[in-house]
Write a structure and sequence with these properties.
This protein has about 120 residues and is mostly beta strands. The protein has a single domain, classed as Immunoglobulin-like. The chain is about 0% helix and about 60% strand. It has no helices and eight strands. Strand 3 and strand 4 form a beta hairpin. It is elongated and about 50 Å long. The two termini are about 25 Å apart.
Length: about 120
């Protein structure tokens, strides 16, 4: 799993404490079985420690099925009340054999450029 994030100044309103970020996730099936992404669960934490949880079916309206060696990439976004934060989560996957498992997305940073010391 690979994640890249970026600040979107054209969609943000810092005076109103609204900082918008895009993130691009690349999901790789490194296993030996075909698997489908069924649901997502994100935990988004801003710099003040406020937590939002997002749960839903699939990602960007899709529930991609990945054969061994295949990848799927998508871009989505989120809004924070602070100029920095973190995201992490899981995708619930189902193999062709019906086995359910979670694919973990390690924590990644959401931050304005040059705002991390």
């Amino acid at each position: 799993m690979q994640v890249k994030s970026q600040y979107l100044p054209e969609r943000s309103q810092p005076r109103r404490q609204q900082y918008v970020f895009a993130y691009t996730v690349t999901i790789h099936n490194e296993g030996g079985e075909t698997a489908q992404l069924k649901t997502r669960h994100w935990v988004i934490t801003d710099a003040d420690g406020n937590v939002q949880e997002v749960r839903g079916d699939g990602v960007v309206g899709e529930q991609p099925t990945l054969r061994p060696g295949q990848s799927f990439e998508y871009t989505s976004g989120c809004s924070l009340r602070t100029p920095r934060g973190m995201m992490e989560g899981t995708y619930q996957m189902v193999s062709d054999a019906g086995e359910r498992f979670d694919a973990r997305i390690a924590p990644f940073s959401l931050a304005l450029p040059h705002s991390l010391n």
